[in-house]
Amino acid sequence: MMTNLTQRPVRVSRLDRTLIAAVVLLSSIFPVELFSNTPPAPRGSDGQYSGKQGQVLVVKVKGEEQATEVKGTFLSRTIPFFREFRPEEPPGYIGLLGIDMQDDPGTYELTVEVKQGEQTKHLSFNVLVAKEKFAVEHLTLPKEKVDLDEKAVARWKAEQQVVQQALAENSRLKLWHSNFVEPVNGKRTGIFGSVRIMNGKPRNPHNGEDIGAPMGADVAASNDGIVRLTVDHVFSGKGVFVDHGLGFYTMYFHLSEVLVKDGDLITAGQIIGKVGATGRATGPHLHWGVKLNGARVNPYSLLDLPFKNGVTPPPTATVSTSETTPTSQTVPVKE
Ligand SMILES: [Zn+2]
Questions:
Q1: Angstrom distance (rounded) from CA 182 to CA 293
Q2: What is the pLDDT of residues 30-57, one digit of tens each?
Q3: Using one digit for the tens of pLDDT, what is the confidence trace for 173-228?
Q4: CA of 233 to the centre of ligand 1 (A)
């Protein structure tokens, strides 16, 4: 790595000074690795992780010093890392890696860039994605709710655009603090990721968890965040999209009532709506969905995340994490 040129006790000639200036300039433009003689570390040399489709992995990067930025890349998705202070744990950074429910099983590389001033360190982890056994659901719905006419298709497309635009704007600050909570106390149907056959035809897999609860039951926000979007859409019905920061979103659909509005700051456990059956729903229930840096993950994997005693770091503090790798258990149900 670079030596600190400003501390050299020797006299430098004019030519030397020019060369030094050039090196300093170049190294501020190009990553430091370009000047290093050591070959890049082999793939996966910094650790191994594994999880099933739809799970969330907690990735740790050790680091005594405060970095300027720590950022990972996994299957073209950006994973922001954050520092969290926990007593009695070694300092470092945590990244929450979501495995999308449709990521193909296999081994992929997670690269992590640790920027410290002008220097950039590259880390490499292997992530084994294992297949989850998703249920197959056969649903019978009124024909008009499954086979949309032209007008309904146009409406659905426009609604997708609205959601995409709203979700492109995500908070760069980590807004969640404590543990995640279940939004309603109800019967978990265990159909996250299930293959759906509607009126005999295969459809998109189910990208959230449905929780059966009575009409009008309170729906709580699963953590602190900002209401990014409230909707009344053809499939999701009345819904709320909560931005928890760093690419972390939770969604609450089919509500009978929405009690918050776009831009509201909310806290974990705050009642944001009431259970309903709006949109494409067969009866009152909450559809709880999660998007983590673009990956559709099982919402129940959030309940196992190790933030129970998480504390917001003092500005210069060193940090930590836990070894826990949350797992999700889906219980297949047949209808
Ligand atoms: Zn659902």
A1: 21
A2: 444 444 556 777 888 899 999 999 999 9
A3: 999 988 899 999 888 887 899 988 888 888 889 999 999 999 999 999 999 999 99
A4: 14
Give distance in angstroms: CA of 191 to centre of ligand 1.
8
Distance 112 CA to ligand 1 centre (A): 34
Q: How far is the CA of 170 from the centre of ligand 1 (A)?
A: 24
pLDDT of 331 strictly over 70: no
State in Å: Cα 154 to ligand 1 middle: 22
User: What is the Å distance from ligand 1's center to 307 Cα?
Assistant: 26
Q: Tell how far the Cα of 179 is from the centroid of ligand 1, in angstroms.
A: 23
3-state secondary structure of 295: strand
| Interatomic CA distance for residues 309 and 86, integer angstroms | 8
For the entire predicted model, the pTM comes to: 0.78
Cα 9 to middle of ligand 1, angstroms: 68
Give the C-alpha distances (Å, rounded to integers) separating 107 from 19, 43, 94, 255, 294: 44, 11, 21, 39, 19
Supply 186's token pair. 């109800």
Q: How far is the CA of 207 from the centre of ligand 1 (A)?
A: 7
Task: Collect all residues with Cβ–Cβ distance below 8 Å to 223 and sequence separation of at least 6.
Answer: 175, 176, 177, 178, 180, 181, 242, 244, 250, 268, 302
In eight-state DSSP terms, residue 192 is: T
Cα 269 to middle of ligand 1, angstroms: 21
pLDDT value, residue 66 = 83
Residue written as token pair 């744990």: 89
Ligand 1 centroid distance, CA of 160 (Å): 16
- Give residue 281 CA to ligand 1 midpoint distance, Å: 8
User: Of 204, 211, 192, 210, whose CA–CA distance to 135 is shortest?
Assistant: 192
Residue 300 burial by Cβ neighbours in a 10 Å radius (0-12, 13-18, 19+):
buried
Q: CB under 8 Å to 23, separation ≥6 — which residues? A: 5, 35
